[in-house]
Amino acid sequence: MFATFDFDVIRRSLGYLFLDGMAFTLTLTALSALGGIIFGTLIALMRLSGFKVLGRIAGLYVDFMRSLPLVLVIFWFYFLVPYVGQWLTGASRPISVGAFTSALVTFIMFEAAYFSEIMRAGIQSISKGQPAAANALGMTYAQTMRYVVLPQAFRNMLPVLLTQTIVLFQDTSLVYVLSMPDFLGAASKVAQRDGRLVEMYLFAAVVYFTISCVASFGVRRLQARISIVR
Amino acid sequence: MIEINHVSKWYGSTFQALKDCTTKVAKGEVVVVCGPSGSGKSTLIKCVNALEPIQEGDIILDGIKVNDPKTDLPKLRARVGMVFQHFELFPHLKIIENLCLAQEKVLGRSHDEAMAKGAKLLDRVGLKVHANKYPAELSGGQQQRVAIARALAMDPIAMLFDEPTSALDPEMISEVLDVMVDLAREGMTMMVVTHEMGFARKVAHRVIFMDQGEIVEDAQKDDFFGKPRSDRAQKFLSKILSH
Q: Interhelix angle for B170-185 vs B140-152, to 10°?
């Protein structure tokens, strides 16, 4: 049945697929994960802070983001932000935000909602005696978080954070709605151009599957190593 | 050095953990606080460096009012060492790093200075060879000695001990008490919540007995062990000294 297929199209487009497409996907994944974890940690700290108002705002934000389909957020963000920017700055025309910037900000904001829940669980997993000991040594709230609580929370949650990042890696393919040249977008372009839809989409699926699978395996090994040390 | 004046504390709106407690610890004095579990003794000692807030009364530490909202608490706490029941070493840091962290970040000492001080104190508690291990690799008694060294590294004006030997296996208790006895004999001001009456007999100047959030008895050591005035203290002593 493979006789009518032309798998050579893959070999011919490898350079474009990986050097452009995959590089874009990995960059977007890495930056989104980094930003998402930082922003998510801030949200988690807000939720756990003694200030009711801050906690409430953070809680609403998380619920809001988790109640929307990611693809819609990407879409709306891309089309709305220029107008919001115009309104905020009082400019005469919509501000142009590059597609990459727009997508990156969307992913950071969206993923932060998920990362914040992971970090919240991580912070709550640290016994209260730890911040008490840090306080007793004269550390401020910020120092206690930075040097004592967050490093431990982060370490405990590393496997879950990485797993969420693997999900994020797959989710970045949704930027196709903005016709951006990520890996799937690149594969799709070649597919349309050469009329080789089955081959290219099959190949894209295999690549996503392989990378995610290997990464998951790596996370499991890491998890096993962490649990021995503790 | 430590003055506790008419302190009351509630958890929530109903449960009163401390009822009008008044006592003081003079410079160089060793005061042991004992009493049945739930008597408020740990709560009282945690109020001294404001790890627990109080609702009524005053606590004055070296002339500074602890429960004044304007007091710079981190700065004040840095001057008082505290040792916890469950050690609370930072598990992600090596032993020597546990000793250096607050010296560098709170007192602003240089890394070399902090390392030197840390090594000296580790040597003092007999754990110099373990400097580069992680807390989980040490026994409970060793961890508690590290915790004492960590507190001493801040050059505290007084030390608070919250049941320092309660979480230890029996054979490890004496190694921790030995360090505390040395400290007491050097003239450190100490407030110690403990059931170790042997320790109290050896180095305490005064013994405070608490029950149900009240200071029932506050007496010189010899008076306390010789002829406790209250029934409750007598009962408590007969229970823990009978075996």
A: 20
Query: What gap in Å lies between CA B241 and CA B235, rounded to an integer?
Result: 10
Q: Which of B82, B90, B136 sits opposite A136 (nearest CB)?
A: B82
3-state SS record for B173-224: HHHHHHHHHHHHHCCCCEEEECCCHHHHHHHCCEEEEEECCEEEEEEEHHHH
- A54-61 contact pairs (CB < 8 A, 24+): A58/A116, A61/A113
Contacts of A155 in chain B (CB under 8 A): 92
In chain B, what residues touch A158 (CB-CB under 8 Å)?
none
Give contacts of B 40-69 with A, CB under 8 A.
49, 51
Q: Do A140 and B74 touch (CB under 8 A)?
A: yes
Please report residues of A whose CB lies closer than 8 A to that of B98.
none
| pLDDT profile of chain B (243 residues), mean per 10 | 94 90 95 92 94 94 92 94 96 96 96 96 95 95 97 96 94 94 95 93 93 92 85 86 67
> What are A's interface residues with B at a Cβ cutoff of 8 A?
127, 129-130, 132-140, 143, 147-148, 151-152, 155, 229-230
